[in-house]
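Q: Fold this one first, please.
A: Sequence and structure below.
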Amino acid sequence: MRRLTTLGVFLAAVLMGVVAAGCGPSQAERLRLFLNDRPKPIAEGVPYRVLPPDVISIRSTYVPEINGETQQIRPDGFVNLPLVGEIDVVGENRTGLKPTEIEERIRKACEGYYERVDA
């Protein structure tokens, strides 16, 4: 009789262990929870704006005078490029420009000297 009681307790413990193991999250669920708990970048979704004293590098296949040019933005927000001259790269309101906006300003400045100025 004692063996049956011991066997019954053992089977009950095994059954509880199996049931308890099935109650936890699956591996896919644990991975999803882990990925969602990671800290988010501070500036998520905010476009970078160029301001002094940032340094910009210029590459242009069709404008050799400025290809490979590296310039630090002056405190007044301008850079001085060979042949093209001075270009405002922080904008009139002084809050900075996105790199694509600077690219457009340099492209327009070069159009007076070259037929093809795209990269």
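Q: Good. Now the second chain.
A: Here it is, same layout.
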Amino acid sequence: MSIYYPAKSPKGPVAAFPLRSALVFFVTSFGFYVCYFSSRQIIALETEAETTASGGGAEPTETRCTNRPAIIPHGPQTRYVHFPRPATYDRGECVCNPVRFFVIVSTQRSGSGWVEALLNSHPNVSSNGEVFSMRERRQNLSSVLGTLDRLYGMDWLTSAAKNECTAAFGFKWMLNQGLMENHRDIVNYLNRKGAMVVFLFRRNTLRRLISVVANNYDRRARQLNGVHKSHVHSKEEAEVLARFRPELDAPALIPSIRTAQRAVRACLRRFGSTRHMVLYYEDVVRDSRKVGGGTSRMALEFKRGYPITGACSSLCMQALSRVQEFLGVPARELSSKHVKIHTRPLPDLVGNWEEVRRTLRGTEYSRFLDDDAE
């Protein structure tokens, strides 16, 4: 049997070469594409895992910030340093500057407005006021945590916003603004988020109660041209508000003091597992008063009802220096335009002073009658 072979075309191998080259090029390109896409997916998954493990939100990884400051705490302190990426604006050149989150926990009429104003005079500190004074932000746990997420994501624009790179970002939270009702979940959130707590309270509960009653009266009376003001920025306004001498309910005085102190103790106990410091209003005033055994200009101005424009750090403001150190910002000269309202001795502040004095005399709260307590 004869076998016939097809005649080979002289152009066969030459004609097949472009097809083979195209096939090899396609396979090679596809391989490079698969490798590149897979590597990007792996990087994305590793980034998400690192962010989740650190408890942070949408923060850039180490590879995004090649120009981070050299001095960044290591070890346990690392969890308190964040690199937030807000969704509503670009942090620009500040994206690689570390930020510490904080919250000032306090009670009304404990000097929190003054202390917050002092801290906000620092170029790298932004404290955003009483965020939870609005009921809709604290009507349930979900709204509370959602507000905290938005705040600590730095998607929060207030008058405390800085042109400079913010290094400490937080707000004020009063005990009666949903803090104590959800304390377990809030403690877990603060610890998971790496937020620090500054407790600010007042030792002389009697003076605080006097201020509370007087402030509640002004809510109704609106003594400053029909406007209620909890804080004033002029000596004249302070003098108008100081004219009112509230009469305290003597039979309810001791129970009121006891309730206020119990709330403070409960707060310190429930939030004790957070990274925190305790600051007392009286210490801020007293530390500013003592400079080499003398009296600082700032303390005199505050006690006499003048704006607080003196230099804190240069006048040995130890209390506020501790706060700045705690927040991880350089100690600076702090100032405020707040004016103290009740500057007179206790007997001149209360309409029924003798009754108040008799009620507290001989009790564990008699120390509040000493005007040197503040």
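Q: Anything worth noting on the second one?
A: The two ends are 124 Å apart (CA to CA).
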